[in-house]
Amino acid sequence: MITSRTPYRISFFGGGTDYPEWYLKYGGAVFSSTIDKYCYISSKFSIELLETRHKIVWSYIENVQSFNDILHPVVREGLKFMNFDNNKGIEIYHIGDLPARTGIGTSSSFSVGLINALSNLNNNHIEKHQLALKAIELEQNILNESVGSQDQIAASYGGFNKIIFNTDGNIVVNKININKETENFLLSNISIYYSGTRIGRNSSEVVSDMLIDIDSKYELLKELESYVDIGINLITNKDLPGFGKLLHESWKIKKSLGNNITNSEIDEIYNIGIKNGAYGGKILGAGGAGFIMFVIPEEKKEILRQKLPNCVEVFFKFENQGSIIL
Q1: Run of H or E including 228
Q2: What is the DSSP string of 20-58?
Q3: Residue whose C-alpha is closest to residue 152's, from 97, 205, 111
Q4: Residues 29, 162: contact at Cβ < 8 Å?
Q5: CA pair distance 325, 4, nearest whole angstrom
Q6: What pTM, to 2 d.p., does this model score?
Q7: pLDDT score, position 195
Q8: How many C-beta neighbours within 10 Å does residue 30 have?
Q9: Which residues have C-beta within 8 Å of that of residue 73, sequence separation ≥ 6?
Q10: In terms of DSSP bridges, do strands 190-194 and 312-313 run parallel, antiparallel, or are they unpaired?
């Protein structure tokens, strides 16, 4: 049995500029990191004695004879994309540390982890950049999802990265060397809360209105991209107020990009954070629900916990391995 472990991500700056509809015209950049919350995917070939050929275990348990009968779209199309033989039985099992459709990059981590597991099941080691590109191709070109290209890169590589998206489609990953002291400082002054609700739709639907007329948002998206280098510099110099306030400005812009990115519940949680000591923050992922991140001094974290009794704080550490085979 082959088991992959793939991290989820948190994105700090530049989100929105990683959609091919945008960066193939204007370029883009994102600053993000991965955390020690993971998607685990195990895969093995079935023995021929089993009555059903393929077994897929996720939120459902599927026992099917043909790839075409698999309900999980990423597994169904991923097996065909990776040229697996339908006549050779396969079993795939998924476990995730955090719930799906919550803005933490679970969908792309699943795609990356699946491709990594299946490649190694066939004794084909796949390097990180190729792994990310295959996940992007699966999601964007085969499943036709309107998703960005940052999550697949982050999940594959792990760690703190500036990801540059060029107009020719080339994606460059620059590792950001943040020392352990600075990493611990950032970790001590960030809180992530689960709002208690999942995004009711796929992220591609949440951002659909942004993508329809994306050229009209040129100034806004270019400003978001400009925050990437500023944000990296701020955190490298441990300027917590500056980092948090820049996130706040980024969130104000992001909210204006589409009608489904925020709602009254998200706004209420965010405003409580700001009123109780947070310098700034943002919703993670496309928006609509899920996880909200705050940059807040460590000494004020307990006050915020008391003010958000209906939200669950998720404790985490940063990680730098990306998707690996255990």
Answers
A1: helix 218-236
A2: HHHHHHH-EEEEEEEEEEEEEEEEEEPPTTSSSSEEEES
A3: 111
A4: yes
A5: 4
A6: 0.91
A7: 80
A8: 28
A9: 143
A10: antiparallel
Instruction: Pull the structure tokens for residue 92.
Output: 């795939």
Which 3 state secondary structure label does DSSP give 29?
strand
CB 152 within 8 A of CB 310: no
pLDDT tens across 193-218, in order? 988 665 444 555 556 666 777 888 89
Residue 137 · residue 196 · CB < 8 Å:
no
The stretches in the chain having pLDDT less than 50 are 199-201
Burial class (CB in 10 A: 0-12, 13-18, 19+), 271: exposed
User: What secondary structure letter does DSSP report for 310?
Assistant: T
DSSP string, 52-107: SSEEEESSSEEEESSGGG-S-HHHHHHHHHTT--TTS-EEEEEEESS-SSSSSSHH
Sign of CA dihedral 301, 303, 307, 312: positive
Task: Give the pair of three-digit tokens for residue 256.
Answer: 């204006």
Q: How many CA atoms lie within 13 A of 140 on its CB side?
A: 16
Can you read off the two tokens belonging to residue 153?
A: 């890169």
